[in-house]
Specification:
The protein is of the alpha+beta class and 177 residues long. It has 2 helices and 8 strands; from the N terminus they run H-H-E-E-E-E-E-E-E-E. The chain has helices spanning 2-29, 43-50, and strands at 57-67, 77-88, 93-96, 108-113, 116-127, 130-140, 145-152, 157-167.
Length: 177
């Protein structure tokens, strides 16, 4: 009886494995499951392929904030944060979730300089005891570098945010078809 029980268990295991493999193969060939990203590429390959594309895109950025306290001469408050950056190549505009003049509802004008997207917007408000006359950010599409800069009356410039971004993408089970 021991040999009969062992043979039945082995046969049941092999049959289950065969059914599992056939269902997996059918799921893969019908496109219900995918290995890799869109078009059979890994996420890294898809990012490399699109890194200098002109598609509209959103990016998640890990940044270090160096926010002045009181005035520009005081030691800044330094902390890390996460912001979202958007680039629209058709409208030649961009935005980020910022605190100053560029935001999703008040986009800045975008100019491409090689792999860098430079987004700027004029401003006219006082902060840190100085008049801010402009804000810009640069996003390097080749390495994801992000830098946000304020321009003050008199020509002074100050970096407030610096960090690295990665493209936001749909979940792996999402289909664009």
């Amino acid at each position: 009886m021991n040999n009969k029980t062992l043979a039945t268990a082995l046969l049941t295991t092999l049959a289950s494995l065969l059914v599992f493999m056939v269902l997996g193969w059918l799921s893969y060939t019908n496109g219900w499951i995918q290995f890799g990203g869109v078009d059979g590429l890994t996420p890294e390959q898809a990012l490399d392929k699109k890194e200098l594309s002109t598609e509209n895109a959103n990016f998640v950025c890990e940044v270090i904030v160096s926010m002045p306290r009181g005035d520009l001469l005081a030691a800044p408050e330094v902390y890390s944060d996460v912001v979202v950056v958007g680039l629209n190549y058709v409208q030649k505009s961009g935005w980020y979730q910022g605190q100053f003049s560029i935001s999703e509802s008040r986009k800045g004008s975008m100019v491409l300089q090689g792999s860098k997207a430079v987004v700027s917007r004029p401003a006219m408000f006082e902060r840190f005891g100085e008049m801010i006359i402009g804000e810009e950010f640069t996003f390097d599409r080749s390495d994801g570098a992000f830098v946000q800069t304020l321009t003050f009356k008199g020509g002074k410039r100050r970096h407030i945010l610096k960090g690295t971004c990665a493209k936001m993408s749909a979940a792996p089970f999402y289909s664009h078809k």
